[in-house]
From TrEMBL:
<dbReference type="InterPro" id="IPR023214">
    <property type="entry name" value="HAD_sf"/>
</dbReference>
<comment type="function">
    <text>Bifunctional enzyme that catalyzes the enolization of 2,3-diketo-5-methylthiopentyl-1-phosphate (DK-MTP-1-P) into the intermediate 2-hydroxy-3-keto-5-methylthiopentenyl-1-phosphate (HK-MTPenyl-1-P), which is then dephosphorylated to form the acireductone 1,2-dihydroxy-3-keto-5-methylthiopentene (DHK-MTPene).</text>
</comment>
<protein>
    <recommendedName>
        <fullName>Enolase-phosphatase E1</fullName>
        <ecNumber>3.1.3.77</ecNumber>
    </recommendedName>
</protein>
<dbReference type="InterPro" id="IPR036412">
    <property type="entry name" value="HAD-like_sf"/>
</dbReference>
<dbReference type="GO" id="GO:0043716">
    <property type="term" value="F:2-hydroxy-3-keto-5-methylthiopentenyl-1-phosphate phosphatase activity"/>
</dbReference>
<dbReference type="GO" id="GO:0043715">
    <property type="term" value="F:2,3-diketo-5-methylthiopentyl-1-phosphate enolase activity"/>
</dbReference>
<dbReference type="GO" id="GO:0043874">
    <property type="term" value="F:acireductone synthase activity"/>
</dbReference>
<comment type="pathway">
    <text>Amino-acid biosynthesis; L-methionine biosynthesis via salvage pathway; L-methionine from S-methyl-5-thio-alpha-D-ribose 1-phosphate: step 4/6.</text>
</comment>
<keyword id="KW-0028">Amino-acid biosynthesis</keyword>
<keyword id="KW-0378">Hydrolase</keyword>
<dbReference type="GO" id="GO:0019509">
    <property type="term" value="P:L-methionine salvage from methylthioadenosine"/>
</dbReference>
<keyword id="KW-0479">Metal-binding</keyword>
<dbReference type="InterPro" id="IPR006439">
    <property type="entry name" value="HAD-SF_hydro_IA"/>
</dbReference>
<dbReference type="Pfam" id="PF00702">
    <property type="entry name" value="Hydrolase"/>
</dbReference>
<comment type="subunit">
    <text>Monomer.</text>
</comment>
<dbReference type="GO" id="GO:0000287">
    <property type="term" value="F:magnesium ion binding"/>
</dbReference>
<comment type="pathway">
    <text>Amino-acid biosynthesis; L-methionine biosynthesis via salvage pathway; L-methionine from S-methyl-5-thio-alpha-D-ribose 1-phosphate: step 3/6.</text>
</comment>
Length: 232
């Protein structure tokens, strides 16, 4: 089947897990108390803090909300409120050039080649859409945001839920069998396949030192870099 669009995950797929875990998450964890104290009253921030408070029995003190959020960072919770707040915090880091976002060179090259060939590219990540734009806007390969036609986060639903991919397919407007989804997580690929998308497991040896072969691939095509993703 022809591929007419590509949907890609970020962490573990275009970019290393260690950048997210060792740079982005600790930055957000450290900055959270000051960020909440400085901006906690802004409606766009308050709404997410209140969502966390409600989910935790109606906590009143911001200091406790911060502790809950820091616990979620430690657990790598993919919670929409946490992801939205992290995105706002990382904006400062990118602006101050405290870091640039890691992107595997093969991913940057293939994304550029596919875009040049006229293939629409989309992102689906647990990171919030603003965080995704910052990420690709300040990548090691420069500003890659012009390559993308659309951005999706967990406001479309969880990444292991087939309905999320149906929602994205409807938004993209291309039939599911003509969209290729790339991810490092087989459960995400399972959900995308259930929704009718084509799938490829990106199995990066830097992130997953033991190659996932046989049953561990759940029958998804497997490659180790974007250079081996076939789109024709
Ligand atoms: C683009 S924001 C940084 C990554 C992040 O917070 C995250 O949760 C990434 O999850 P993914 O769905 O891209 O594996
Ligand atoms: Mg991932």
């Amino acid at each position: 089947m022809t591929i007419r669009a590509i949907l890609t995950d970020i962490e573990g797929t275009t970019s290393s897990i260690s950048f997210v875990k060792d740079v982005l998450f600790p930055y957000a964890r450290r900055a959270l108390p000051r960020f909440v104290a400085a901006r906690g009253k802004e409606p766009g921030v308050r709404k997410w803090l209140d969502a966390v408070a409600t989910e935790n029995g109606g906590i009143c003190q911001d200091e406790v909300i911060v502790e809950v959020l820091q616990g979620w960072i430690d657990e790598d919770r993919k919670h929409t409120a946490l992801k939205a707040l992290q995105g706002m915090i990382w904006a400062d880091g990118y602006r101050n050039v405290d870091f640039t976002a890691h992107i595997y060179p093969d991913a940057a090259k293939s994304l550029q080649d596919w875009h040049a060939a006229g293939l629409p590219l989309y992102v689906y990540s647990s990171g919030s859409v603003p965080a995704q734009r910052l990420f690709f806007g300040h990548s090691d390969a420069g500003d890659l945001t012009p390559l993308f036609s659309g951005w999706y986060d967990t406001e479309m639903g969880g990444k292991r839920d087939a309905q999320s991919y149906r929602n994205i397919v409807e938004s993209i407007g291309i039939p599911a069998p003509e969209i290729l989804f790339l991810s490092d997580v087989v459960e995400e690929l399972d959900a995308a396949r259930e929704a009718g998308l084509q799938t490829v497991l990106i199995d990066r040896l830097d992130d997953y030192p033991t190659p996932r072969t046989g049953d561990a691939t759940h029958g998804h095509a497997r490659v180790e870099t974007f250079a081996d993703v076939s789109v024709s």
